[in-house]
């Protein structure tokens, strides 16, 4: 399998996670807070979305320059510097890696309202991200 095909396959996986998160976006804040299954599903799916995107970023960087990014945040900046995505967009989406770190490492107590309020932003940014990567790679058959 070529690097291009591996990245396109990863992009398909990202689309699956995106669809899963979108299906959870219709729950109310009260439902979210009172239902630990919803909370864990949203948290884990958001984590997977960010990790999948940063995997794609690193695969693109290695394909372009032979080396990956130093961290999740900079993977978005680095692909912008390679003219894969606009820098303005990279600066908007890169901070989503901070929420991923909180969810994974619980650096601080997870604030359910903050996570819940991040769902639509996550959906908006990662839909645009998938479109930009697809435009760059032309994965759609």
Structural class determined from secondary elements: mainly alpha
Q: Architecture, CATH level 2?
A: Up-down Bundle
Average of the residue pLDDT scores? 92
Summarize the biggest pleated sheet. none
**Overall geometric form:** globular
CATH topology: Four Helix Bundle (Hemerythrin (Met), subunit A)
Low-confidence stretches: none
Helix percent reads over 70%
What is the fourth-level CATH superfamily? Answer: bsu32300-like
Polypeptide structure, described:
This protein is mainly α. The chain has a single domain (3-137), classed as bsu32300-like (Four Helix Bundle (Hemerythrin (Met), subunit A)), CATH 1.20.120.580. 79% of the residues lie in helices and 0% in strands. It is built from seven helices and no strands. The longest helix has 30 residues, at 36-65. The chain is globular and about 45 Å long. The protein starts with a helix and ends with a helix. The mean pLDDT is 92.
């Amino acid at each position: 399998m070529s690097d291009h095909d591996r990245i396109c396959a990863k992009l398909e996986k990202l689309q699956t996670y995106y669809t899963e998160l979108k299906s959870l976006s219709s729950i109310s804040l009260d439902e979210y807070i009172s239902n630990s299954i919803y909370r864990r599903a949203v948290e884990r799916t958001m984590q997977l979305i960010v990790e999948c995107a940063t995997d794609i970023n690193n695969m693109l960087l290695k394909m372009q320059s032979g080396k990956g990014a130093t961290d999740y945040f900079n993977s978005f900046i680095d692909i912008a510097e390679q003219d894969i995505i606009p820098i303005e967009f990279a600066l908007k989406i890169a901070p989503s890696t901070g929420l991923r770190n909180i969810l994974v490492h619980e650096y601080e107590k997870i604030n359910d309202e903050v996570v819940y309020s991040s769902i639509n932003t996550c959906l908006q940014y990662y839909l645009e991200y998938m479109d930009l990567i697809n435009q760059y790679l032309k994965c759609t058959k």
